[in-house]
């Protein structure tokens, strides 16, 4: 396994004091190893999990040629351009059972959507187009062509064809596809466990009385939400004051129980920051100033579990309440020579969310074993000028909407301070102004990372 220094050294233009945002993801991709433990789950429980096997279709879907419409099935070779066609109905094919019988020239079968196409028939006229008079059906000229409204055997998947690949994050469509193959359970990778705590003497837990200089802990809730939406098991270690013994206990407990540890606060240059010192002591960590806004300071690295066994850990005096039910409390047993990945996020509430979306989320997806997926950006016209300095990536909270001409436009949600969560709540995406980009004029196209269920 490469050391943190090696990974950093191999990155082009690596500068911990002004790191381009894109480089961070390349670094994290090297740092994070996917989990490998596999379990078999009934399909419904596998939603949001990562597939640990390739799925080859055991059957063809659909299993037979069938009708895409309620109407009349017939041989399409009888159609002549510009000519109506009159046929006689000789039977009815319902979905769920094959209709058997002879259909000769000039004949048709009344057929329902999904019903097996009777032998030799290849075309269906929807009933709305047909003029029915007793058992006679007239198909007006030019309403159907040969082969219309017939669904072919295996047009979704043929038996033996690859249906899904290992690494697929099982979304509703994938669950449906697996079910369509008659498969009841799948092998998936285990859920990733992520421990989180907020740091800082000024941070109040909910339920505590307000006091001068203190603020309520919001990061614990945003991170809990982001992790839960991602499908991680959250080990919630609450708020840890800026006290070396308590921080040490929290880091030890977190790294012993989780694949990844996320903290917020204490990674900047402030004075009372024991968080950085403890990360240095227990982990192999780099402290970055990323060329971005918000989210400039960030620490990442590994906490080697071998280091956790030495020395008596102080008791964690905070209550380590589980945020995601009983499973989060199961003590995980990791090999002693393994590592927990560490993400030390900045304290400012919006910086936490932005660094999570930009860096932590892709890294956790990798940890979960999911295939890398490029972030999809939507391009929208900026409704206003935006000031932007080249040389850093800026993430502005935005609302994408359609204007009267049907064009996608985006406007910022007001106060962009990195502690202002209300403008994050109003936003439906982040306007991402790239490293080299300068000022934006009203009407310029900008890229927007849509929240799309992540937030
Ligand atoms: N001289 C400098 N000062 C600061 C710099 C810098 O480069 N030079 N960077 C600024 C930036 S950008 C950020 S972001 C912050 C990050 O500082 P820390 O990670 O050390 O975070 P704290 O100082 O602990 O907190 C910052 C801010 O966020 C509030 N906070 C912290 N945790 C929570 C929480 N769980 N819930 C709600 N709010 C929280 C905290 O009260 C502070 O207001 O540093 C800047 N300063
Ligand atoms: O960039 Mo800091 O991370 O603004 O809040």
From TrEMBL:
Cofactor(s) in the UniProt record: Mg(2+)
Enzyme class, UniProt record, top EC level: transferase
SUPFAM superfamilies referenced in this protein's UniProt entry, alphabetically: MoeA C-terminal domain-like, MoeA N-terminal region -like, Molybdenum cofactor biosynthesis proteins
Keyword terms, alphabetized: Magnesium, Metal-binding, Molybdenum, Molybdenum cofactor biosynthesis, Transferase
Domain of life: Bacteria
E.C. code: 2.10.1.1
Reactions that this protein is recorded to catalyse: adenylyl-molybdopterin + molybdate = Mo-molybdopterin + AMP + H(+)
Matching Gene3D superfamilies: MoaB/Mog-like domain, MoeA, C-terminal, domain IV, Molybdopterin biosynthesis moea protein, domain 2, Molybdopterin biosynthesis moea protein, domain 3
Annotated InterPro entries: MoaB/Mog-like_dom_sf, MoaB/Mog_dom, MoeA-like, MoeA_C_domain_IV, MoeA_C_domain_IV_sf, MoeA_linker/N, MoeA_linker/N_sf
Domain MoaB/Mog: 195-366
Pathway in which this enzyme or protein is active: Cofactor biosynthesis; molybdopterin biosynthesis
CDD domains in the record: MoeA
Stated role: Catalyzes the insertion of molybdate into adenylated molybdopterin with the concomitant release of AMP.
Family: Belongs to the MoeA family.
Name this polypeptide is given: Molybdopterin molybdenumtransferase
Native organism: Ottowia flava
């Amino acid at each position: 396994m490469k050391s943190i220094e090696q990974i950093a050294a191999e990155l082009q233009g690596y500068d911990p004091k002004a790191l381009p945002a894109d480089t961070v993801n390349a670094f994290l991709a090297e740092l994070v190893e996917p989990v490998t433990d596999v379990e078999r789950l009934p399909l419904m429980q596998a939603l949001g999990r990562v597939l640990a096997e390739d799925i080859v279709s055991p059957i063809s879907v659909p299993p037979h040629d069938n009708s895409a419409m309620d109407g009349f099935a017939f041989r399409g070779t009888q159609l002549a351009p510009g000519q109506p066609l009159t046929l006689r109905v000789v039977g009815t094919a319902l979905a769920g059972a094959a209709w058997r019988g002879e259909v000769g020239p000039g004949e048709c079968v009344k057929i329902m959507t999904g019903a097996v196409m009777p032998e030799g028939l290849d075309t269906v006229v929807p009933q709305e187009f047909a003029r029915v008079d007793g058992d006679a059906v007239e198909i007006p000229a030019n309403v159907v062509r040969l082969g219309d409204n017939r669904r072919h055997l295996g047009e979704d998947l043929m038996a033996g064809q690859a249906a899904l690949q290992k690494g697929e994050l099982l979304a509703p469509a994938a669950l449906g596809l697996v079910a369509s193959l008659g498969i009841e359970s799948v092998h998936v990778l285990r859920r990733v466990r992520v421990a989180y705590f907020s740091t800082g003497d000024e941070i109040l837990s909910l339920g505590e009385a307000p006091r001068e200089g203190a603020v309520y802990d919001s990061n614990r809730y945003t991170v809990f939400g982001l992790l839960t939406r991602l499908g991680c098991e959250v080990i919630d270690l609450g708020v840890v004051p800026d006290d070396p013994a308590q921080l040490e206990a929290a880091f030890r407990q977190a790294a012993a129980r989780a694949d990844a540890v996320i903290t917020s606060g204490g990674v900047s240059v402030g004075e009372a920051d024991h968080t950085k010192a403890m990360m240095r002591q227990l982990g192999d960590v780099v402290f970055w100033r990323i060329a971005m806004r918000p989210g400039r300071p960030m620490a990442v690295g590994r906490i080697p579990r071998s280091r956790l066994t030495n020395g008596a850990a102080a008791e964690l005096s905070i209550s380590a309440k589980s945020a995601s039910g009983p499973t989060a409390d199961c003590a995980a047993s990791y090999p002693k020579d393994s590592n927990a990945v560490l993400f030390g996020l900045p304290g400012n509430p919006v910086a936490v969310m932005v660094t999570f979306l930009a860096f932590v989320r892709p890294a956790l997806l990798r940890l979960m074993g999911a295939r890398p997926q490029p972030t999809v950006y939507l391009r929208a016209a900026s409704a206003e000028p935006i000031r932007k300095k080249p040389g850093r990536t800026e993430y502005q909270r935005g609302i994408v909407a359609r204007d009267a001409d049907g064009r996608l436009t985006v406007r910022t949600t007001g106060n962009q301070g990195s502690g202002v969560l209300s403008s994050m709540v109003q936003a439906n995406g982040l306007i991402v102004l790239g490293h080299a980009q300068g000022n934006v004029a009203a009407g310029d196209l900008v890229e927007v990372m849509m929240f799309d269920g992540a937030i």
